[in-house]
């Protein structure tokens, strides 16, 4: 394993290894999809860290995992089945390797987790280094800032490596970033710094004096007191691709106890020309770098642009996932009417609340997994004052290759109980448009959830005036399948074609909150199956069971959804297979239920 | 209404008014409880704001509402029925007054909301000022920091007034605060500043030049670039109790368009000697400043101290509510084993995850309403890696006088679906201890929820080995009442004493996740009522209904809990009456259900 050998490598060997790692990463992402640009930018940093520290005794925390591929390769994991079922996860995961200190699918957690780890280490009288590798975009996340400012006394043997590539997923317009870049732009300081760094590689008394001098000089040359005030010794900026410089600095840092922030400047996509030129495109890429066309994300983007033409009050809000949720075109057409808050889901939601208070009609576009981060803002800032904010929740349901940190299985159970909030799950992109208009017409908080990937048009659409009502897509006098959400509806229709269950009635339950209670009352004497891609616990089926119980109806029903587990990476259809949620599984379950007395 | 007249007041009259407001506030809090110290500290700031700006055309946002009492009095609200049913809320609420721009029960939202409001104003071509009044403790919250750093370009006509009293609810150890206080300590700067502020009151060309000079001088005299880098003109520090200075500065600020941060130094508890001396005690106070003794909070504190004696791995984590959750004694006895993260719920939870990863056994003590702010951290940082973090959720259920922003009604529905997390609701303080030990013995993520206030010992306690099992407290062959949580169990036992329902069976359902399914199977042929102080939607009753539906049992059951609405301030027992959740209500419902065929 490279992780064991790397301590003996010289800089020339490290450079060779860097080239080899890059080659494997580009090949793997071309094959399996994944995060390319940030991973390419972190190769030398990771090599230098492994050269200087003793992992896994020392602890390395990533923030986020977009930078961890080189680390995975060094610690014996293959990328050939990256993000595939049974293969390596796209993110660090302690269950996968003892080298993965902490889960790292959502941004901004490394500093708090690392400080907690230091707290434990010091209390237990242990002795290891804790190193957090954090990107400049993640640093702007509220939780990271909370940790940075938490105490002016930072733990000893705590090293934060800031991988500063000058851009978030989209673009960085943050005050934090500008603040950093001002510091790094000071040429005279950089030169002086480079000189000192060279000298500092000696460990003599002179070296130590120089180091002290360096800090002093930095104090008035580099006007960025940001990290020093927060209890870190600030070291840098260093060239994050210069292995000579990096290994030199890190071997120095390995010897001192002070909490340090090492500021490294890197190039996103480094070593792969296409990605260097267009890192946004290569941030997170699907298989063969292709993009799904007929998807809810694309449909939402078009819808927003279309509605924005006629409605000047419509504005879009997102949090560093503008491309992912389909807002690229909108942001070009209406640059003044989009707010991308960076990786700040909390501020994004509350800014939207403020916009609504100010008379606008904001649409907040977030992935289901990241919406979780603004749960209280939805409750406190949007739903208590009943502000007309519409949440468009992308990546709801199984998300496929991104795996357990990114699943969108919790939104129904979390949001269903929030007062004043309506929740929809349209069956296809055409219905998205109707539900979108309907939800906005109410002038109340609302959310629309839909899955990622290809979404077929399911037809059978009648324009109606009330989208709280459900839609029977296929009549039948057998079991009633109450299908909630695009994938569930599509699979239920497919299941009906399977021999033996042709008499099933398929209902598109596009409104989760409120439920279509008239229809539920009507079905009370039928056998009912609820079907959804979300946790069975507290989800749509639970809502139906709860309704009948509250109304003292004893119905024969069955809830089919995802079990209450964290679902690992695989394709979306493999995930459906793993938990018996395919059309064939549904058909079997319908038959079994139908044959019960 | 004072708000209309105040523009004509001179400084002498304002001072008189300040004294009058203080008197009313002290009287009201003595009578009704509430937040005293912070409100006393903000009187002059609020008076000066009303003198300088035109509310409600200009918009004033509080962060948090602990400072809003003077504002309530100025805008025609009486404090005589403060926090009582039908009286004024303890926090700003747009439903209560057009002067209350935004909901402000949870910290850190004002800046994002204010920036959203400015975005709306500018897009709609409107013209008003947006003013956020934020305390130094709130500023350390992640959402506030996200907004501060969100963009280097802050909106015009956006004024942030930092009410810096140098302490959070408990004490401030944050780097942010130290950073501020260093700046304010520079005497020569203060003197110079005071001189300039005097001159600046003239609006002549000379005054304008002086103003420019002031910014320049400040640039190198006051080394705190923090806010300037974030796009604010920094003005201050000013004495937040000097009405002459305040009205002068604010009338200047009213005339300029630049985004400004005004740094005001105030004294918490100002004008009330007892509160000035011990502001922590007078932060949030119950009626007559008394403290409830026989409560879960007190019991938890004792329990933690007791267990910490024998278990060196036990550590406590909280977020600026150390006293409220009962940790005062623990923090004195084990100062090295408590982490108070300030108003940073996200960082607190993830730090606890880090501690658990490092071999400790952290207990995170938070109010239910604030736990909502760390929902994703619970999912991503604690439950995915199955770390042994125990959440002790105080103020679960109705919270009484704090009202709708503080209700603890969402925790069951939000947490129940989170994989790997067990959830308990002990019936009394004695059982808290058993459940606490049991949950920790599993070495898995777990949460224990319990209400505030007086909690009687309900007896009937047998030490058993498995607290996933429920406990029948009173046998009977009539309706089975599955009561979940201390208040529900107490009321169910009380209901049983009421004529006509003596044959009811009362079960203490202390484990919400997992459910005691053996017992549920056993009761499948009985009439069942579930009873809880939480939302019916997605709560404990829903879990029971869901279990029976999933297992194809058709049971006769009824779910009794709080309806899905935001519950306004009143006493806890009034809140139970409002939603028909008293013992008498339960008895009536049992009778009605029992008499059904």
Overview of this structure, please?
The structure is a homodimer of 597-residue chains. By secondary structure, chain A is an alpha/beta fold. In chain A, 42% of the residues lie in helices and 15% in strands. The first copy, chain A, contains 26 helices and 19 strands. The first copy, chain A, has a seven-stranded mixed beta sheet with strand order 9-8-10-11-13-12-17, sandwiched between helices. In chain A, helix 16 (328-333) links the parallel strand 8 and strand 9. Chain A is elongated and about 85 Å long. The interface between A and B is large, with 119 and 118 residues.
Give the structure's gist in a few sentences.
The structure is a homodimer of 597-residue chains. With 597 residues, chain A is an alpha/beta fold.
Shape, per Cα inertia axes of chain A: elongated
Tell me about the largest β-sheet of chain A: 7 strands, mixed
Strand order, sheet with most strands of chain A: 9-8-10-11-13-12-17
User: Total helix count of chain A?
Assistant: 26
Provide mean pLDDT of chain A, rounded. Answer: 89
Helical content of chain A (DSSP H or I, runs of 4+): 40-55%
Quaternary structure classification: homodimer
Which stretches of chain A are poorly predicted, pLDDT < 50 over at least 5 residues? 168-174, 181-189, 217-224, 287-291
Determine the structural class of chain A based on helices, strands and strand pairing: alpha/beta
Beta-strand fraction estimate of chain A: 15-25%
Rounded Rg of chain A: 26 Å
- Beta strands of chain A, count: 19
Q: Which pair of chains has the greatest number of interface residues, and how are they split between the two chains?
A: A-B, 119 and 118 residues
Terminal CA distance of chain A: 60 Å
